[in-house]
Specification:
The chain is an alpha+beta fold. The chain has one domain: Beta Barrel (M1 Pyruvate Kinase, Domain 3), CATH 2.40.33.20. It has helices at 49-52, 59-69, 114-120, 155-160, and strands at 2-10, 19-21, 23-27, 31-32, 54-58, 82-85, 96-99, 102-109, 134-140, 142-145, 149-153. The longest helix is centred in the middle third of the chain and has 11 residues, at 59-69.
Length: 175
């Protein structure tokens, strides 16, 4: 199972406009370098560390939500960090995966919230309920760039790359 990283989005503070990058760096234990959550802020900063480091969404899901809501919703409007195509993001929850050379773990689905509705002015809770993407934790950091491969990583490869195993393996949260 593989896909492609199409876009990278970040902002330095909660509720501030997102800005698109062509490349960036994923930092182990923090997320996307310079992003609000990697800096210790963000609207959901009180959530457990592993659940707020990074968010991913599928570009086709964004297009479907835009069509369903009859809006010009863009991937940047969703406030997710990484926009992908070709990989089933919900199937990454509870699994290791790579974006380029960075190793991540899918922590939970990322449904929309009323905060996102306030910022976009669009009712998104129901349309994005199963199209909101996923939250992930970064275990091995690396530079990333648009066009990078997003792929599933089996447990044995993840362990060779330094991922925690056994009782130290992360536990996803089902929402």
């Amino acid at each position: 199972m593989t896909g492609t990283l199409l876009e990278i989005w970040t902002t330095s503070a909660a509720a501030r406009p997102m800005r698109r990058l062509t490349d960036g760096r994923l930092v182990a234990g923090a997320g996307l370098e310079g992003d609000r959550y990697a800096l210790g802020g963000g609207t959901w900063a009180e959530y457990p560390d592993l659940e707020k480091q990074l968010t991913l969404i599928d570009v086709d899901d964004v297009a479907a939500v835009a069509a369903g809501t009859r809006t010009a919703l863009t991937p940047g409007d969703t406030r997710r960090n990484l926009v992908t195509r070709g990989i089933a993001l919900p199937q990454l929850v509870g699994r290791w995966f790579a974006v380029g050379d960075a190793l991540l773990f899918g922590m939970k689905r990322c449904p929309p919230c009323t905060h996102l509705e306030r910022l976009t002015g669009t009712r998104l809770i129901k349309p994005m309920a199963y199209r909101g993407g996923v939250n992930a934790a970064v275990f091995v950091g690396a530079p990333i760039a648009e066009g990078a491969v997003v792929r599933l990583v089996e447990d044995d490869e993840a362990a060779r790359l330094g991922a925690p195993t056994g009782a130290d393996r992360p536990v996803p949260r089902q929402v």
